[in-house]
Write a structure and sequence with these properties.
This is diaminopimelate decarboxylase. With 488 residues, the protein is of the alpha/beta class. The protein is built from twelve helices and 21 strands.
Length: 488
């Protein structure tokens, strides 16, 4: 298999055949078992013994596998049909992120199937994971992009997303970024009075008429961590609903600069009850009726994203994309609207794990610790808001290994540097592999260089079982370039 054109293949056709690949685009490097490729050639030390068949992902009622990372009968953890231990042997350094490309395809297919019979845009929330090969695959599958910064907009355009399927959100969009949005032709959400003023200025500066949606807060409790609740009255996002008429009158006064085409809401993240979306959609449809009664031709209802996943790996019965869409389907059809949804976590989180090596095991007399080479610098969710992500060892434990309760911690000089607390695990050997699951969303995209922990490489498993490098690791030379040419 040649390294070129790996990303041009997909299981699903793109609805935009006019998009073409860029001739200067570099293909991701491939870690082979044992194939050899141009930019990277790594041979994994694969056992020659007859292995047990790799585990197959168990299908849910909706036909979408819950976890692409599964324990085999041989006791090893697999990603699709590849031992994670073999991926560790092939990777250039640890820690690293390991994805399943087939799981990305399956997750998108779940939304595609759920949206049958509706006019719709699936706008992938780029903030969840901004890896360029991941974005290109989602674009090829037909996704639009949801953007919250000018650089995310630039990246989406570089990845080839259709601007007519892109939405620019945010409560603090700058004038320069809004000019780029106007030039590009993306939808822009109106978030405040000054935001509306800046959109109008950007339209005049570029000579473009900007399609806008009003971000309205339905004030429905999403029943999630307050840090990820975004649709209530205390949120920094959205217009003051009691000023809706002021916004409508203002928009009418700028017929050459802006066109109101829809309404938008976003309740929050990790939502596990679809009736919350239904409650919000009912309120939003009432706003649609009110706005249409004043002569506006609204075409779009954007209900945001936020569908949760099974971070605890307890086989919890959580809403599927089909459950979500069926909750609002009739409302959308009754109003003859195009539905926009903004999935991020539910498209990408469960496609990836964060792979670490154990540096050592220690105890302070009251607490046991597994110290790994990964840290809050590479994966901050547990430290930032106490998020739980399932953790397990990559390989079968050494015979006789004691099972104990551990905190899994990194080397960063902070007591907040932990990946998990109070986890019951077999005592691992030095150098053993340990993974943090469901790391595809809000992990690498939030990584930092604290303690000069440079950001790690990323790989994915292809449909044919080959491992492809999809992001280079950062090196000290990359860091030092920030100071090139500055005074000594």
């Amino acid at each position: 298999m040649a390294a070129a054109n790996l990303l041009s293949r997909s299981l699903l056709p793109t609805p935009n055949p006019t998009q073409t690949s860029h001739p200067n685009r570099r293909s991701p490097a491939v870690v082979s078992f044992p194939r050899r490729h141009g930019r990277l050639s790594v041979r994994a030390s694969v056992s020659t013994a007859s292995p047990s068949p790799p585990p197959q992902p168990a299908a849910t009622a909706a036909g979408v596998p819950k976890h692409c990372f599964r324990r085999g009968a041989d006791g090893y953890l697999y990603c699709e049909g590849v031992r994670v231990e073999d991926a560790m042997a092939a990777a250039e350094r640890s820690p690293f992120y390991l994805y399943s490309k087939p799981q990305i395809l399956r997750n998108f297919a779940a939304y595609r199937d759920a949206l049958q019979g509706l006019r719709s845009i699936v706008g992938y929330a780029v903030k969840a994971n901004n890896n360029l090969p991941v974005l290109r695959v989602l674009r090829e599958l037909g996704c639009g992009a949801v953007l919250v910064s000018g650089n995310e907009l630039r990246l989406a355009l570089q990845a080839g997303f259709d601007p007519a399927r892109c939405i620019f959100n945010g409560n603090g969009k700058t004038f320069e970024d809004l000019k780029l949005a106007a030039e590009s032709g993306v939808f822009v959400n109106v978030d405040s009075e000054f935001d509306l003023e800046n959109i109008v200025r950007a339209a005049r500066a570029t000579g473009k008429k900007v399609p806008v949606l009003l971000r309205i807060n339905p004030d429905v409790d999403p029943q999630v961590h307050p840090y990820v609740a975004t649709g209530n009255k205390t949120s920094k996002f959205g217009i003051r609903n009691e000023k809706l008429q002021w916004f409508l009158d203002s928009i009418k006064s700028y017929p050459d600069e802006i066109k109101l085409v829809g309404v938008h809401c976003h309740l929050g993240s990790t939502i596990t009850k679809v009736d919350i979306f239904r409650d919000a959609a009912v309120l939003m449809v009432n706003y649609v009726d009110e706005i249409r009664s004043q002569g506006f031709k609204l075409e779009y209802l954007n209900i945001g994203g936020g569908l949760g996943i099974d971070y605890h790996h307890t086989d919890a019965v959580l809403p599927t994309p089909m459950d979500l869409i069926n909750t609002v389907r009739e409302l959308v059809l009754s109003q003859d609207l195009t539905l926009i949804i903004e999935p991020g976590r539910s498209l990408i989180a469960n496609t990836c794990c964060f792979v670490n090596r154990v540096t050592g095991v220690k105890s302070n007399g009251t607490k046991n610790f597994i110290v790994v080479d990964g840290s809050m610098a590479e994966l901050i969710r547990p430290s930032l808001y106490g998020a739980y992500q399932h953790i397990e060892l990559v390989s079968p434990p050494t015979p006789g290994a004691e099972v104990a309760t551990f905190d899994i911690v990194g080397p960063v000089c902070e007591s907040a540097d932990f990946l998990g607390k109070d986890r019951e695990l077999p005592t691992p050997d030095e150098g053993a592999g340990l993974v943090v699951h469901d790391a595809g969303a809000y992990c690498m995209s939030m990584a930092s260089t604290y303690n000069l922990k440079l950001r790690p490489p990323e790989y994915w498993v292809e449909e044919d079982g080959s491992i492809v490098k999809i992001r280079h690791e950062e090196k000290l030379d990359d860091y030092m370039k920030f100071f090139d040419g500055l005074p000594a």
